[in-house]
Amino acid sequence: MKVAVIGTGYVGLVTGTCLSEVGHDVVCMDIDESKVERMRRGETPIYEPGLEELLQKNIAAGRLHFTASIHELKEPAVVFFALPTPPNGDGDADLSYVIAAAKNLADVIKDYTVLVNKSTVPVGTAQQVRDVVAAETEVAFDVVSNPEFLKEGFAVSDFMAPDRIVIGSSSKRALAVMAELYQPFTTEGVPLITMDEASAEMTKYAANSFLATKISFMNEIGNMCELTGANVDFVRAGMGADPRIGNRFLNAGIGYGGSCFPKDVLALHRTAGHHDYDFKILTAVMDVNQRQKKVLVQKIVDRLGENLSGKTFAMWGLAFKPDTDDIREAPSLEIIRELVGRGAKVQAYDPEAATNVKRVFPTEIEYASSALDALHGADALLVVTEWKEFIAVEPQMLAHQLKDKLVFDGRNIFDPATMANAGLTYLSIGRG
Ligand code: NAD
Fold first, then answer.
1. Fold classified for 2-197
2. Could you name the CATH architecture of 293-427?
3. Which residues does ligand 1 sit against, CB inside 6 Å?
4. What is the model's pTM?
5. Are 202 and 233 a contacting pair, CB within 8 Å?
6. Cα(98) to centroid(ligand 1), Å
7. Is the pLDDT of residue 106 over 80?
């Protein structure tokens, strides 16, 4: 099937590449010409495990193409919008990218086409896109909502073997096209869940808001464990064994970040407000997360005082989570601001995300070339992202390197007893 994907970020590039992998003929379009050039050469502009190999394989097979011009899309049967929907000044999802692309697309479609919203968009957007395109063309088309549930860091495997595919459409014709498009997945047993557009749009917000709620809830339990002398690791094991709860998203830490949870919780909260509905749980989820992002700095201040001038902190991890270079809403950014604002020196290392952070803090902090390099001359270590390579580091080596023998672990990657045995003062989250 001929497929076009507009926008080639984490969602669009993965969607386009994976659909070409299962045999579709895909053209990906992006307004960023330098990105398009890189992708044509077989380079991925983002870090996502397994993506580059798949990209190169499908370019070589002649199934995956890139363009910077919407007019080069050659009569696709399906067009995906994988465009940004960041919060606008009020916190609502900014639909301007999607609406602008939909307007431009009206010129391009020559025959019946299915337009698919893969961007996360509020209820009512499918109708809005339909109205915009219908005002510009006489050609028959349908608009479908097909929210994406992939996780950065696992995007390729999530797309190739998803838990479910959600399709929202009231058109039988569009549903048939989508069923054919996803047949390589459904024949492998992936459930295709069909519903109306509004429900599909709501499903994505509901799923992300629920996961964010789980994280904020567990962060509150972690804080309570610290106050009462309980250990959140044991509590998680005991709770998570209940299949009604499950043990995923139950790690206490320093708050959720990334390009999705913060903006999607806020957007659903705003949608509720537009309907005069007070979505109380989401208010609390956001408040808790804001507070939790400051927990690590609070532990530092409690230990070392407000004035941190003369102190050097090694910082392990900048990405909002491991296996991605994405730093949108990453807790690391707030921690850097707080530490630098108190006069501290920060030596940061991240396997993939340093280039992105350098754009935000070009001179304010130093960038180390390895985890060990970041420890050089440091008084204390902060663990901000739980990359696997950090977990393997020997506590004795940390005790040898760190002048104050202090470790603030925002991700609970080390065992408290082992750290104490190595002579380290180890402060983590929710462990008594
Ligand atoms: P992104 O910022 O990584 O990528 C967006 C891309 O769109 C960029 O490459 C940008 O250059 C391009 N673009 C902007 N305007 C354009 C235009 N007019 N024409 C063509 N290209 C244009 O975004 P993302 O993380 O891939 O997210 C896209 C959507 O998918 C958002 O709504 C997001 O909420 C949703 N989503 C994201 C994830 C995730 O993990 N990142 C997961 C599920 C859903």
1. Rossmann fold (3.40.50)
2. 3-Layer(aba) Sandwich (3.40)
3. 6-12, 29-32, 35, 82-85, 97, 100-101, 119-120, 148, 150, 152, 259-260
4. 0.94
5. no
6. 10
7. yes
